[in-house]
Amino acid sequence: MTAAVPATPSAPSPEHTLTVVIVAKNEARNIAECVASASFADEIVVLDSGSSDRTAALAAAAGAKVVQTDWPGYGPQVARGFRLATSTWVLSLDADERITDALRTEVLGAIRSPDFDGYRIPRLSEFCGRFIHHSGWRPDHTLRLGRRQLADFTGHFLHAHMTVDGRIGELRADLIHFSYPDIHDVLEKLDRYSTGNARDMAAAGKTAGVGKAVMHGFFAFVRTYVLRLGFLDGSHGLMLAIYNAEYTYYKYIKLMFMKSPPQRPEFPA
To answer: pLDDT tens digits, residue range 238-248?
Structure first.
């Protein structure tokens, strides 16, 4: 009796291929695990904008195609990655994010479905060693998967986001986001993100003063801790509410000084 020969898996249809695009700089602590979580994709493109650590080497060793580039900004960089992609579908992934097994299964099913042209994915984000389930951080649906010919990215300095010119659906499995692993990241991102948001507000023609900064900062705390049930996240929810208040206060103060830079006072006689 002749033994059955297992069928050889067929290559994916060109209509069902996927490129994962990752933008990175000095992400040696994250990039290998990030690329590994996307290893099911037909292509992984890492755009490295001048890392001084081993980001590029680690990404290549993990199986990614590494492209060395300048830094035109987050949105334009991701859009550049979309243009370099060769697959029908693209998925934007940050170096501090991971695709779970459940999300991988959903993504592979989604790109074989004719129902939608793009998909929002819920994120489960970490703050100083704890995943946050309230505080406005859940379910945090973000558009990340789309047909390449219909997908683009906005050019905002900070809150750039993906766009898809077509029908949008939602997946259910989480994208894991290791966003704030420790207090050093919290403080660094507080400064960087508040500056970036102030630049976006300045570009939009917005103005600010101390009163507006205090008012918006206070409301950011109330919104996070009370209205969005941050108190259910325990001490981390309180820490996050304070962070959001500080972040909001400083972005308005920075906007104020962008519009009217402080002057050096006269040296007293």
So the answer is: 999 999 999 99
Give, for 47, the enclosing helix (H) or strand (E).
strand 43-48
Q: What angle do CA 125, 130, 131 make, to 5 degrees?
A: 35
Q: In whole angstroms, what is the distance from residue 208 CA to residue 197 CA? A: 13
pTM: 0.87
Q: How big is the chain, counted in residues?
A: 269
Q: Phi, psi (5° rounding) for residue 128? A: 50, 50
Given 3.40.800.20, 2.30.29.30, 3.30.70.2330, 3.90.550.10, which CATH number is that of 17-180? 3.90.550.10
Place of tokens 């590029």: 56
Neighbours of 120 (CB within 10 A): 19
68 burial type by CB count under 10 A (0-12 exposed, 13-18 middle, 19+ buried): exposed
pLDDT tens-digit profile of 147-177? 999 999 998 877 789 999 999 999 999 999 9
Question: Position 231: which residue type?
Answer: F
209 by Cβ neighbours in 10 Å (0-12 / 13-18 / 19+) ranks as middle
> In sequence order, which ranges of 11-156 are alpha helices (DSSP H)?
31-37, 55-61, 74-84, 101-110
d(CA 124, CA 136): 11
- Backbone dihedral angles phi then psi of residue 25, each to the nearest 5 degrees: -155, 125
pLDDT tens figures, 50-82? 999 999 999 999 999 999 999 998 899 999 999
| Residue ranges, CATH 3.90.550.10, the chain | 17-180
